[in-house]
Structure formats: C-alpha cells, structure tokens
Amino acid sequence: MRRIFLIGYMGAGKTTVGKQLSSRMGLSFIDLDLHIEARYHKTVRELFAEKGEEAFREIEKKMLHEVAEFEDVLVSTGGGSPCFFDNMAFMNQAGKTVYLKVSVEELTKRLELCKQTRPVLQNKSGDELLRFIDESLQKREPYYLQASIIFEAEKMLTESDVQTIAVALEHILNQ
C-alpha cells in the first residue's frame, strides 16, 4: 500500500509529472483540486469566490484526509495545500511527500503562458508576476521543505523531460 503526495508551487508540474509517475508505478492518480470540484460540483475558483479562502481551506483539508484513506494512490495537491492546518505533517505521516522544486524565474516563465486560467495571476505580468511568485514562494517554501523528498524539477520543456523526471522519481521512491 503506497501513498505519494506531490507538492509545490503552481506551475511546478505536479499534475503533469503525477500522471506519468502514477502510470509508471501502477498507482491511481488524483488531482486534489479536481477531486474537490467533482465533490462540490463547483470549480475551485467558484468555491473561493463564494465561500472565501478560509472555508475553501477547510474543504481542501477534509478532501485531503479523504483521499489519504485510499491505497496505492498518487495525489497532486494544490499549491497552497501544505501551508494550512497540519496538512504537511498529516501528508508526511500518511505517505511520502515529494516537493517539486522549481526556481522563481522558471515558474514565472511557465505561469506567464497560462496565467489566464489562474485568477490570482490574471492581471500580473513581467516583473510584477515575478515579484508575486517570489513573495508567495518565500511564504510557502518552509512548508514545502518539510517534504520527505525534495526534487529539482527545473527542466520540464518537453514530454521527454517529463518522462525523465518520472523515471528519476520512480527510482528514488522505490529505494
């Protein structure tokens, strides 16, 4: 019975790597945000807007505890999931945690391309986007660094790069 939790900032590749890695390891894949959306029949954006961040984080914690009951699963968490309540300690107790570590500069490049799908980033660009990511990553990284495995996931431009990361993580997790 295995449980793996992928954590990291938005744009770090948790879902992309998670799908490949779970397939390689024969694990079910769960994107925590999509699990929440399926359960509540609303997008994360809608839940945030309607209920506020505090209520959303309560829902997120409840759903995290639910999926942590599953066996042979890889969970891609939301970027903020580890930073609230006792979520990081809980995940470390329930299974293996893997922090996909990516530099602020690389995150900025990745997120510039998809910022329209991320409400918190929509009106930011260039230096403003970089500063926002830097500031929020500084707040979140103390939680991320509590992961049992810290993996540099800087180079993820191609499908081949994703495969290379998945293979390397599979090797580390199987040791």
Describe the structure.
- The chain has seven helices and five strands; from the N terminus they run βαβααβαβααβα.
- It has 175 residues and is an alpha/beta fold.
- It has a single domain, classed as 3-Layer(aba) Sandwich (Rossmann fold), CATH 3.40.50.300.
- It has a five-stranded parallel sheet with strand order 2-3-1-4-5, with helices on both faces.
- α1 crosses α7 and α5 packs across α6.
- The two termini are 15 Å apart.
- 32% of the residues are buried.
The helix fraction, in percent, is: 55-70%
Instruction: Tell me how many strands there are.
Output: 5
Topology pattern, helix = H, strand = E: EHEHHEHEHHEH
CATH topology: Rossmann fold
CATH secondary-structure class? Alpha Beta
Overall form: globular
- The gyration radius over C-alpha positions equals 15 Å
Biggest sheet statistics: 5 strands, parallel
In total, the number of domains comes to: 1
Mean pLDDT: 95
- Widest sheet: strand ordering: 2-3-1-4-5
Low-confidence stretches: none
Beta-strand fraction estimate:
5-15%
Taking the alpha carbons of the first and last residues, their distance comes to 15 Å
- Which superfamily, in CATH terms, is the homologous superfamily? P-loop containing nucleotide triphosphate hydrolases
Structural class: alpha/beta
Q: Count of helical segments?
A: 7
